[in-house]
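discrete fold record:
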Amino acid sequence: MDTKILVIDDDKDYLDLMVMHLKRKGYQVEGTSVVTHALTLLGDTRNNFAVLVTDWMMPGMSGNNLVKMAKQINPTIEAIVITAMGQMGLSGKLKYGAFDFLTKPLVSMKELSEMVQRALDHRTEKINKNSERSTLPDRTTSPDRSTSSDWATLPEKSTPPDRSTQPDRFTSPDRFTSSDRFTQPEKSTPPDRSISPDWFTSSDRSTLPEKST
């Protein structure tokens, strides 16, 4: 994470004091007392400043407008305003996006470095939150619950049987095939009872004893 700081103050002695203190704390620091030079540094994308520390009252442009322009150039930059005005006089002016303010003169330079670190932490937190939001799924579209590979592993549905080939249950079943019919015993033809039976053949009659006269 970048920790490059831009410090602007038209009081050169106070500017040098702030720059030296922040460098001793391990930050990369650029300092200028001219507003136009500050805008040039902000517009150079190679700098990518993380925190802007600016005086509130400067010739040519107020710290208020400078913070506003800095945010337009680099939306992720955090701004700290140093002013001789009291908190009540500055509260309405922080609406332009300043992270916080310090009252001049500072009690100690440690006050400045602690404020810079809080601004850096706040910036990092905002960047991380924006990164998490960008990775969330789009809930406006219906989720595809199964991928193409999932479809390939699903079991195929069995084809229903063709009922047009099923036997017709409303017709009498053919219980015997043609071959079965030939093996069935033939039914005997009943005698024709309309004709009187011939109880004896001619040969039988010849063997009957003759009646005595």
